[in-house]
Request: fold
Amino acid sequence: MHIGKKFLVFIAAFCIPAILLVYWGMGLWFERKATSLLEQSIAQELASIEEQYQRSIRRQLLLSHIYAGPLSGLPPEAQASMDSAWHEHTHELGLDFYRYSDEGLVSFGLGNDSPLSPDIVSALEKGSDDVAVALLSDSGPLLLTAITQGDSRVLVSRSLPEEELTRLGQSGLVERIRLVESRAGGKYQIPVASLGATRLVLDVSFGLGDVHTLAIQPDRVVVGILLLGILLLALGYVWIRRSLVVPLNRLMSQLGNIDPSASRYLPLSADGCAEVRHFSRVSNKLLAEIFAQKEQARVILEGITDAVILTDAKGDVLYLNPPACRLLGGEATDFATKSISGILGIKPVLLDAFLRGQGEACKQISLRFAGRLLQCTLSPIEDHQHRRTGALLALRDVTAEERLKAELRRQAEEDAVTGLPNRTTFEARMKRLAAGHESVALCYLDLEQFKIINDSCGHLEGDRMLCMVAKAFQSCLAPGELLGRVGGDEFGILLLGRSAHEVAQLLKTLQQQLLMQVLEYQGQCYRVGVSIGVAFARAPLPSVAELFKDADIACVAAKQKGSNQIHFYDDKDKELNYQRNAPKWALRIAKAIHNRELELYFQPIQSLRGGNPRKRMEILLRIREGNGRILPPAQFIASAERFKLMPEVDKAVVAMAMEWLAGYPELWRDHCLSINLSGNSLGVEGMESFIVGQLKRNAIPPACICFEITETSAIQNRQRALDMLRSLRKQGFAFAIDDFGSGFASYGYLRELPVDYVKIDGCFVRQLASNAKDFAIVKSIHDVCSVMGIETVAEFVESQDIMARLEEIGINYAQGYAVGRPKPLKDYVPVPLRQLA
Reply:
């Protein structure tokens, strides 16, 4: 609708009815307000009339008491005289006094005559309480009161003429008050006390005729005001039309004539009110920004390297940028109004669904065009109502990129030398192939003597040997079974659905096939062997990582058995389980060191000769789990040695043992703690300074500490061990060789090592009481040590018979269950030897 017509409709349909409604509403409000005030006044008036009526009753009762009081004490002659006197003074006031006597109701001054009916008289005679009731008699309305004073009962009757009742009203609103019988339909009635079944009320009439004439009535003045308001509205419409409607119409006409595709920007011109001019300025600014953005979009589309095509809602081409023209091989005019589906080969169903707004907002598809792979991104073009009016197609030639990706993918998944799957690809394919099979066997193959080829012939010949090995392995496998290179000279084979016997036969065939592979280089022939570890599993299959771990451990066991060996992993093999759990134990040890969860135990070392005053005990290491269980030392010690954690473990034990000893200075003169040092700790940089630092920190004498080192550790790290032992020995520490006799050339190294004690290995002590050879070996060790001035300690002493044989030989000390079992060091009760003496 035109804006001028909207203003007319606004005036006629809204403004004029609004004025009339306001006029009618004000009148209605005034009328209701007057009615509410009137009802409020009437209610107050009725309450006042009732209060005045009650006051008249109270006055009449008071008058009755005034008379009845003196009457009760007078003789009969005086009562008659008093009756006459009262009657003369009150009869003119409309009051009639009666008293009850033996003859009945007697009126003052009138003898025995009474205008009241016997029923009324009888009803008022009963009882002794004060009574006040209204009565309609033949002579008019009466107010009767009866009281009892002593032996006398007095009845007072007063006439209630209508004039007197009307005077009970205090405002000018009351027109008439009457005492009447109660009836339905009475508007203003006040109930009063009465006799019998007849109910009496005070019927009040109000003069309200003038009040109802107060409602607003239309007159000429009001009509004139209304017409004046309508005239002002018409003048306002004319003013608005000239200052707003006409200029706005011209501005709208200019906006309607704007051509969106014009190459020039034409600003709008407008006159009229300030608002229209402001609207014109804002519109011109907006149009300028739209034109600038249009130019920016054109420059961007023509400057980018990707091909861009715009279509309408039907899929016909509207615009192509220069890269799109070059890609399609033509000019923009050659493809104008043609369907993009026919040009690029896009499925019409797919394009129609996208243009109709079905599916995602943006869509990517791959296209083949003129032998090239194109990546097409479809983006919707929507209007202000979010309806799709076309599409934007961004085309990019990804042929070279996809070729590069394929090559990188191949290099990432395959071994560059053999063309086999690498470890990552092998694990991924292994997980996929193993699913659905009842049994699988993962074989871990480690080539032997391969390093000789690399060192002697070079890595190129080594790679050629790897290719020969891969072909030999592949020739032995059935279709569907997986072969991969998982390391430098390590291969993995996944066998599906074979029994353990079949797997063993296949691997032997594979070893034989490998022995036939000969590499000739400069007149020399080179061959390689292979150690194979097998992890055999049945459904439900463990994880790939667990299978690889088991196969790797089995391969290590195969190498330990010799050359070209095969070993199947057995979860009941304790040694293999130790190796399998070694990483877990290593982590547990590291955590225990960090959280100070290591616990020290002690085992006493008993002197078999009475001449030595010192009490000796060996410090043992334990780790307690959260449930209180003590971990087996063999497991975590082996793991710590494998993962090079023993130096940290030894440092923690040395620090804890010295701190404990520092707390008992009374034991320094007659106690000695034996602390084990592993082979990994001997000669480690910083170990010697750490031990000396702990000694100074705790301020304990070095004679209280004896370090035990295993014979094999000392031999393996001979020079470093000698340097460290000599340096610490100068500090005052004592040393002992542990497990003596289990290694080779023991006596030769014993001559070189600066030790004070030799602990004879327990394998010679356990059967000492019954085995003559063990007896001779132990005796020979003791004899040699005695000549060299070294004291001997026998380990694993488990019976008194062994103790007796050791004393017979002359061994200095004994250690074992027969002497004492290991106990927590915190529970040790320090008792100096001098107190025991």
